[in-house]
Design goal:
By secondary structure, the chain is an alpha+beta fold. It has one domain: Factor Xa Inhibitor, CATH 4.10.410. Helices cover 32% and strands 12% of the residues. It contains three helices and three strands, in the order αββαβα. Strands 1-2-3 form a three-stranded antiparallel sheet. The protein is elongated and about 50 Å long. The two termini are 21 Å apart. The mean pLDDT is 96.
Length: 65
């Protein structure tokens, strides 16, 4: 059987917490920030959890992380 390889693109986007949840950065915080309110931009800086339906797929991409 072949060695398991980590998907490097996914490894840069996701990380796991101590309890095993998968964390991601929020989208829409890279450009066109002038029309977004300070509250919205502040909330976009915080990390979010991935959807429960995606956990199995993402775990397959980052088996060792």
């Amino acid at each position: 059987m072949a060695k398991l390889k980590t998907n490097r693109g996914a490894a840069k986007r996701f990380r796991t917490t101590g309890s095993g949840k998968i964390v991601r950065q929020k989208a829409y915080h890279s450009h066109i920030l002038t029309k977004k309110s300070p509250k919205r931009k502040r909330n976009l800086r915080q990390e979010g959890l991935i959807a429960a339906s995606d956990t199995k797929r993402v775990r397959r991409l980052i088996p060792f992380k």
